[in-house]
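Notes from the 1:1 (GR / supervisor)

We went over the backlog. Supervisor wanted to see one worked example end to end before approving the batch request, so GR pasted a single chain during the call. The sequence is below; no edits were made to it. Supervisor asked that the structure be written out right there so they could see what the output format looks like.
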Amino acid sequence: MLENGWFREENESWNGQSLSLQVDKVLYVGKTMFQDVLVFRSTNYGNVLVLDGVIQATERDEFAYQEMICHLPLMSHPNPKRVLVVGGGDGGCLREVVKHAGVETIEMVEIDQTVVDLAKRFLPNMACAFDNPRVTLHIADGFEFLANNQSKYDVIISDTSDPEGPAEKLFEESYFQLLSDALAPGGIVAMQASENVWLKLDILKSLQERCKNVFPTVNYATVCVPTYTSGQLGMMICAKDPQTNLQAPAAKKHIPEDVRYYNEGIHRASFVLPTFAKKYINN
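Structure output shown during the call:
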């Protein structure tokens, strides 16, 4: 909501609080076939992309989320060659994946071409890898794409919207099964888990249980991002192999030099939960 020079994000899942950013200039307002879109320049966080009233990325802090959802699975896999990004039309995930020289092919399936176009226009530091020769962009429905590409990918990064409205199906067991089927043996998937330990722990616990019905190895990781819900965002990292250790980089892996948030210590620490959350989620 834009009002009196401020953008305010409100959500039924976090009643009693909201997130507000001061607006310097509105850059774009529109509606695609799939969602409402707003782009504005903020006074403190640079350009901001908003979809259906929810902040998706700001220039100031987006790298924290993008690095963690990409480098946690890529660094946990000993030798990822084929990577798929589901969603992520802002290009941030692609930017991080191309930093791994050993990755040979990177495919993205994004349903909304407008998001890609607006990211290239207003978030150029994020949308800088679409022209990389290893990248192939598919404008298509992620469900259909996954169903037609089985046992193919070493790492899948599911960078989707929050579990509301049509996007709710992206947090159901049937979607997780599609992700598992699209992975090659030893594959790893990282998915945006939306809920954090301060809000809706019951939903987070349910999400983890649904993942465990499909994957033998499931871990919940967190990342600090000021403009996301309560300043913390969660990710489910899942592996097809029960022996995969997701909570530390694989042996002899080299961290990309141009990262700003991710490091080996952050990798390990992201899986450490506060006592109250650990007790609730794992009981």
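Supervisor's comment: The chain is about 25% helix and 30% strand.
Batch request approved.
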